[in-house]
Amino acid sequence: MVEKDQKIQVIVRKRPLNSKEISKGDQDILQRLSADTLIVREQKLKVDLTKYIEEHHFNFDGVYSEDISNQELYISAVQPIVQASFQGAKVTCFAYGQTGSGKTFTMMGEESIPGLYLLAATDLFYYRDQYFRNIKFTVSFYEIYCGKLHDLLNDRNQLFAREDAKQNVNIVGLQNKPVETVEALMKIIGTGMESRTTGQTGANDDSSRSHAILEINLKQGKKVVGKMSFIDLAGSERGADVSGADFKTRMDGAEINKSLLALKECIRALDQEKRHTPFRGSKLTQVLKDSFLGNCRTVMIANVSPGLLSCEHTLNTLRYADRVKELKKGEKGDKAGKDDKLANILMLPRQNVNVVRYNVEENEETLPPPKPIKNEEDSSRLLFKKANKDDNKFKSKIGSGISGGKNVNQKPFMPPPKAVEKKPPQVNMEELSEKHEQLIGIILAEEEDLINSHRKMIDEMVDMIKHQMGLLSEVDKPGSDVDNYVRELDTVLSIKEDMIKGIREKLRVFNDHLRQEEDLTLAFEKNKAVMDVFNLDAHDDDLLQDIDD
Length: 549
Ligand SMILES: Nc1ncnc2c1ncn2[C@@H]1O[C@H](COP(=O)(O)OP(=O)(O)OP(=O)(O)O)[C@@H](O)[C@H]1O
Prior knowledge:
- By secondary structure, the protein is an alpha+beta fold.
- Among the domains are: 67-305, Kinesin (3-Layer(aba) Sandwich), CATH 3.40.850.10; 429-533.
- It has helices spanning 19-23, 70-82, 103-107, 116-131, 182-198, 247-271, 283-287, 311-329, 333-344, 379-390, 429-475, 482-533, 541-548, and strands spanning 8-14, 30-34, 37-45, 51-59, 62-64, 90-97, 109-110, 113-114, 136-145, 148-151, 157-163, 169-172, 177-179, 210-220, 223-232, 296-304, 355-359, 402-403.
- Strands 1, 5, 6, 9, 10, 11, 12, 13, 14, 15 and 16 form an 11-stranded mixed β-sheet that branches. The chain has a 5-stranded antiparallel β-sheet with strand order 2-3-4-17-18, with helices on both faces.
- Residues 199-204, 327-353, 365-422 and 538-549 have low confidence and may be disordered.
- It binds adenosine-5'-triphosphate.
- Adenosine-5'-triphosphate binds next to helix 3.
- Its main location: cytoplasm.
- InterPro entries: Kinesin-like_fam, Kinesin_motor_CS, Kinesin_motor_dom, Kinesin_motor_dom_sf, P-loop_NTPase.
């Protein structure tokens, strides 16, 4: 059960394997070990092609398994903080995770399965009717798609966020509809959801590329006295669409990546009660500014898919959720900072602290079954012991069996010499990714500047055309001042020339950067392919070192 006084709660929800995954023979690699612990059993290949399992242990404020309903999740994780919105708090609930991991199922629910929107709305109206009759509700629903705001309750009209003199962020033109009943509220949300999925091209993956923000304001007269927000975030893997895809997809991916990283930083700032909240880092955090300041309650639900085929995305989701609160645990010090910097780049996976490795028998096709836990309280330590000592079947043939955490001096394993004739190049993926990240930032800013300058030029040209028409009609008159006409025309043409030159230069620089970005993407893909061949991730520094030695 989530504690209602805690400012930030990070919980994980695992969905069941779906029929498609089952028909593909996908396996469930996630095990909820206790109320707050989850294990991911990642299947890996050594350089000599023997299989081994890497177990990643994660701790969160709550871990919910596939048999938990939306209602049970709501009662345990969200209901305790809903009431706070009547005491002036800004209550925010995020659904984070890979596309198809259950974010919308959690938020919206499905036919006859209520989601958090309806469950929370029912309680809000109940509390209001019982204890706060002078409060009225209004609702707004909008999305952030490709860095732009669209009103889901007004034909997806584009909206603009502006900061006023008091540094409050206002969304100009956003519809804020009064609602009197839960049914009316749900009808409005339904309209917004429809607009979200069909508004673009009708393609389903468009909704997974946008963040949907539902805000229920509690008002006394004109004054907002509390707020409940639900954010169904873009598919987290979309942020990694920075290589391979076409340019527009890469740009969208970069924008999503930027917003998810900025979101993490803002929640961390809130968690650590920092004086500065970096909400200007993205459009998403900018519009959510007041949810990060003052009296706030936040729940982040990290949704995960259970299948082996989703393993990489699941690990990325869990690492992201882990980092949202990790520093509070105060145990990782400088190393966490360094790893975090690396992991921020292109959402690269970061090495976990609690990792257990053990071999898979040669003829063993499937993952080992989850080990029974006797004592939930002490389950995490129990598993470490088992993997290391008792279980002959999974005992490591070469090396320690346990790495990371407490046993840092022991190398995970040494690959046999004959299997490492080819050496992977020592590539600095970190540097490459950092360069790419910077370049994407520059390109996005240049794109905006180019479009604005072009628009400004057209406006000025229209004025100049009007002026030139005036000149022509003057010069056509008998006895006109031709000298003046020539002088004016010369001035107009040189202004035009300068304007065109200026835009051309911007275009040239922009094109140069696009080309550089393509080259970097190619270099990144090439090096990633090499790392994949050697089954390394960007953090297998020890292993790279071993192979090099
Ligand atoms: N806890 C659950 N129990 C049963 N089915 C679930 C659960 N979570 C998700 N599903 C099913 O999985 C599918 C994908 O879920 P959902 O659409 O919510 O994913 P999503 O993360 O919102 O994806 P997207 O980013 O594309 O919107 C749906 O068919 C949904 O019914």
